Each structure stands twice: as structure tokens, then as C-alpha cells.
Amino acid sequence: MKASALRSIKSTLTSGSCHLLRRGYATESVPDRKVAVLGAAGGIGQPLALLMKLNPLVSKLALYDIAGTPGVAADVGHINTRSEVAGYMGEEQLGQALEGSDVVIIPAGVPRKPGMTRDDLFNINAGIVKSLCTAIAKYCPNALVNMISNPVNSTVPIAAEIFKKAGTYDEKKLFGVTTLDVVRAKTFYAGKAKVPVAEVNVPVVGGHAGITILPLFSQATPKSNLSDEVITALTKRTQDGGTEVVEAKAGKGSATLSMAYAGAIFADACLKGLNGVPDVVECSFVQSTVTELPFFASKVRLGKNGVEEVLGLGTSL
Ligand SMILES: NC(=O)C1=CN([C@@H]2O[C@H](COP(=O)(O)OP(=O)(O)OC[C@H]3O[C@@H](n4cnc5c(N)ncnc54)[C@H](O)[C@@H]3O)[C@@H](O)[C@H]2O)C=CC1
Ligand SMILES: O=C([O-])CC(=O)C(=O)O
What we know:
NAD, single chain, 11 strands, 41% helix, binds 1,4-dihydronicotinamide adenine dinucleotide, globular, alpha/beta, 6-stranded parallel beta sheet, L-malate dehydrogenase (NAD+) activity
């Protein structure tokens, strides 16, 4: 090889690593973290894989599905960000995908069509979640599990039972992802209250289906003087947000892009908690004593072991 060609390669490599250091990706400041996405070739899985590839807290990204992951992994893997990407396809590669994972995100499963409720997905998705959680218990029992597959109100308790049976259950590490309800509540509230959406906070408690989704607009910030009538309409729109998208997609599935965004926000919060960032608080459907229900969504403080504290319902402003 000519000396000039070698010099040019060297300079490219050096400027590449400087670039990583400048952007705060240096390994000494950011710990290595492996994230696995199960169902990574799906409607949510693909944009979620993209968003996790953009997250500088991730060093390894494992993309698993029953089909299609080599293509998704090759595509996302060309993006010049920190994480190494690998695709895994078929049950025989699930163990490899999971091994060493710090966070496992599960958007594997069937979505709704118009006229269906999330409960109609129970039979098929319960089976999928059961097999995936059995593998998690075996290959990465200490990982934080972010459950997206519906019905979340049931898939989370199912996962808990699978982990209990395997002897690996840790209530601090199992999360139903309800972030999309918060994302919607923030968007709809900002629109009506005419406040900058980036400043809005709205806790959403309860569960993730119809009337179990309870946005607490009385605690929304920045505060506004919306009438009871408007608050009732905002509540209903948030509760029916999933159905609004299912109907608009007219048979082509449910929310995927907004869910990928919400899933990426929640996974990022989990990673920050694991890395010891203080005061990381998100709403999530977790094992809870806030009400008499065994699982309930409320604000949760995230830390080095997952749930650090399940926060209560709060008080109206
Ligand atoms: N928690 C929430 O707020 C939300 C949850 N969802 C739920 O997320 C789930 C996925 O939705 P979409 O991505 O739109 O569906 P999709 O059908 O586009 O993708 C699902 C993916 O899961 C894969 N899959 C099926 N069985 C699998 C298995 N055993 N192991 C690994 N992968 C498997 C499929 O091959 C497919 O690629 C649905 O259950 C949906 O209801 C959707 C939106 C919001
Ligand atoms: O409505 C659905 O089936 C998907 C979902 O959970 C949501 O968009 O909130």
C-alpha cells in the first residue's frame, strides 16, 4: 500500500475517533450498555431500532425477530453512531440476542385492526410474550424488561408469572410501557392550553386500555384554566388515542411511529437510571401498592436497579 494511502486512512480513523470523543461517546464516560429489541422487524420495531441506534448510551444493539432482522440490522448498522448492531432471526438465535442485555424492549406481537379491543390480542400475544420471557429468564435474568406488546394490562402480569416460575422475578425490573399515553396527553393538552408542548408535563396513571388510562390534567404543567368540558374531552381523546390511530390506518395496524418515539424515550430513561443519573422519573405500569391493584401505572423513579421508587398519585395543583 502506498504511504499516502496509508496516511489518508490513518487520518480518517483519527478524525473519526476524535469525533466520537467530541460527542461524548468516549467509553470512559459512558458505560457499555446492550439493548435488545424483540420484534425488531415490525411496525414499531424498525423505527425503534433506528431511534435506539441514535442513542449514545447504547453500545450494543441486538435486533431480534422471527423474520426480516438481517435486513433491518444491515440498514440501521450503517448509521455512524456509537452502537454495534447485530440482527438475530429465529428462535435458535434468541439466546445470543439476549445474552448480556441490560434492557430488553418487547414490541413483538400482533396489532389491532378496526373494531378490535386490545383484549382481542390476548390469546396470540400472551403466547409470544410467554416464550420471549422464558428466554429472558434464561439468558439475561437481570435485564430491565420494557413491555410494549398488548394488552399491556395483561402481558405485564403474564411476564411476572413467567419470571416467578423461573425464579428470576424482580419487580423492580419489569415495566409496562405507557409512555405513549403521556406523549399523547402532552400533545393534546399543549394544543388546547396554547402552551409550548416541550414544556408540558402530564402524569398518566392506571393502565393502558380505554378507561384505565387516566391522564391527570389537574396536575398538568404549565398550569392553565381549561374548562371541565375541555378536560373531559382531552381525557377521552387520550383514552381513545390508540383507537384514533387504528381507525385512521384503516386495517394497516396501530400506532407505530409515535410508539417507537415513546418506547425510545422510556428506554433512554431506563438507561439513564442504570447509569446513575439522578431524578429520572417516568410513568410506567409496574408492580405497585399505590392502589389495591397488583399492577398500576404511576410515576416511577428509575435508578441503578430499575424501579427505585413507585411514586404515588400526587395532588392536584
Ligand atoms: N404499549 C403501547 O402503548 C403500544 C403497544 N402496541 C403493541 O405493540 C405490538 C406490536 O405492534 P406493531 O409493531 O405495530 O406490530 P407488527 O405486526 O408490525 O410487528 C410485530 C413484530 O413482532 C414479530 N413477532 C411475532 N412473533 C414474534 C416472536 N415470537 N418473537 C419475536 N418477534 C415476533 C413479527 O414478526 C413482527 O415483525 C402490538 O401488540 C401492539 O398492540 C402498539 C402501540 C402502542
Ligand atoms: O391502540 C392500540 O391497539 C395500540 C396502542 O396500545 C396504542 O396506540 O396506545
